[in-house]
């Protein structure tokens, strides 16, 4: 059996981790198994499911320059103890350098850097991340991304054009397909009948731009008093967003729904989906929303690769709040055939069953080239 070690933050319910679990559930685990190198000590919501599927979660010493020698020994011990680990696949953006350099020094011959974003958050680690970003390509053997723009940002246009590979943020399309009965049930349950429901799914962090979303929603409420904003997710800025909603007088029209194991039902209950992010690679939530047949509004900082449906569009972050509000409110006059969303997303190549089979074959081919004879015999 081939084991692939995925380097992650931890296996919480977030975009990258959800994408990985989508693939993990669908690959033939008798041939390819996933393990996870968690670089934060906090347990993740997916940990238990991983273990049920015979995957493993290893907690590293952490991504800290002072701990790098200890980190390298940890990775070396890990791959030397289990010879079935033949691929290390890093999803930590620039900080994936730690796992890939450690794997390189430990003799792992297939090392995948995977870009998921088009910008680095300017936090206290920003200078370190810039250094790691420069070193990242030299530690990897393969350059993957969720989309074109993220790949160019992390690896440079020349390297991306010559050797970049896109692994689509595929989903279980049928699970997100429009279901009228689920829409009716949730809207009755939450007293949303007759309301215009604007939805958003994402962590409460700087990147997702919740503060701007509230400004836009406040303009909508002026013209559509029965508008509601449904926010799904948790994060470090959640409390400040709640406080802003209260200060703006729109807290009674804003639903803070928290984190949930299955968001597919809420896509049914929404009337449109809005993602005014400051930057994105290719957001999996945008694919999910389009599979549910929702009209979608993305900022122009979200790659145009996300536009699968004719009901999806981008709006400049430089546009006024009222301009955003006007485009969103125009949806109320439309009657899109939401049942088409499933087929649109499937035809665009985002069906997880098809893409997982491709990924499995790619992993086996990569490992077989680097370690002849690794491919399981039929």
Strand order of the largest sheet: 3-2-1-4-5-6-7
The coarse overall form would be globular
Q: What is the CATH top level name of the largest domain?
A: Alpha Beta
Gyration radius, to the nearest Å? 21 Å
CATH topology of the largest domain: Rossmann fold
Using DSSP, what is the number of strands? Answer: 13
H-E string: EHEHEHEHEHEHHEHHEHEHEHEHEEHHH
Helix content range of the residues, please?
40-55%
Strand content: 15-25%
Q: If classified by CATH, what would the architecture of the largest domain be?
A: 3-Layer(aba) Sandwich
The main sheet comes to: 7 strands, parallel
CATH superfamily of the largest domain: Glycogen Phosphorylase B
Q: Calculate the mean pLDDT score and round it.
A: 94
What separation lies between the terminal Cα atoms? 12 Å
SS-derived structural category: alpha/beta
Number of alpha- plus pi-helical segments: 16
Q: What are the segments in which pLDDT stays under 50 over at least 5 consecutive residues? A: none
* Count of discrete domains: 2
Describe it for me?
With 378 residues, the chain is α/β, with parallel strands linked by helices. It has two domains: 2-170 and 351-370, Rossmann fold; 173-347, 3-Layer(aba) Sandwich (Rossmann fold). It is 42% helix and 17% strand. The strands form two sheets. It has a seven-stranded parallel beta sheet, with helices on both faces. Strands 10-9-8-11-12-13 form a six-stranded parallel beta sheet, with helices on both faces. Strand 9 (227-232), helix 11 (238-248) and strand 10 form a beta-alpha-beta unit. Helix 1 packs across helix 16, helix 3 crosses helix 4 and helix 4 runs parallel beside helix 5 (126-139). It is globular and about 65 Å long. The mean pLDDT is 94.
């Amino acid at each position: 059996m081939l084991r692939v070690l995925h380097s992650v933050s931890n296996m919480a319910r977030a975009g990258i981790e959800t994408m990985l679990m989508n693939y993990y559930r669908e690959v033939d685990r008798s041939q390819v198994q996933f393990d996870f190198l968690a670089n934060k000590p906090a347990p993740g919501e997916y940990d238990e499911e991983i273990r049920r599927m015979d995957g493993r979660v290893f907690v590293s010493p952490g991504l800290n320059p002072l701990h790098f020698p200890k980190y390298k020994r940890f990775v070396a011990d890990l791959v030397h103890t289990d010879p079935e680990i033949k691929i290390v696949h890093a999803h930590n953006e620039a900080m994936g350098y730690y796992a890939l350099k450690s794997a390189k020094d430990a003799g792992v011959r297939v090392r995948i850097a995977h870009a998921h974003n088009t910008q680095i958050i300017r936090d206290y680690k920003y200078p370190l991340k810039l250094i790691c970003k420069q070193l990242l390509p030299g530690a990897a053997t393969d350059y993957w991304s969720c989309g074109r723009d993220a790949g160019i940002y992390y690896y440079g246009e020349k390297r991306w054009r010559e050797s970049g590979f896109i692994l689509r943020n595929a989903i279980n399309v049928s699970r997100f397909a429009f279901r009228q009965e689920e829409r009716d049930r949730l809207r009755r349950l939450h007293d949303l009948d007759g309301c215009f429901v604007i939805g958003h799914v994402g962590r409460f962090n700087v990147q997702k731009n919740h503060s701007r979303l509230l400004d836009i929603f406040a303009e909508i409420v002026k013209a559509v008093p029965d508008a509601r904003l449904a926010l799904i997710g948790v994060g470090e800025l959640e409390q400040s967003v709640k406080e802003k909603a209260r200060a703006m007088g729109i807290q009674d029209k804003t639903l803070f729904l928290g984190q949930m194991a299955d968001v597919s039902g809420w896509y049914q209950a929404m009337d449109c989906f809005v993602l005014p992010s400051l930057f994105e690679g290719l957001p999996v939530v945008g694919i999910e929303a389009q599979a549910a047949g929702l009209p979608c509004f993305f900022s122009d900082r979200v790659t145009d690769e996300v536009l699968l449906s004719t009901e999806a569009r981008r709006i400049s972050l430089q546009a006024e709040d009222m301009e955003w509000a006007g485009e969103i409110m125009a949806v109320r006059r439309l009657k899109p055939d939401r049942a088409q969303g499933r087929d649109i997303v499937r035809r665009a190549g985002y069906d997880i069953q098809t893409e997982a089979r491709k990924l499995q074959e790619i992993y086996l081919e990569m490992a077989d080239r680097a370690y002849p004879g690794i491919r399981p015999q039929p």
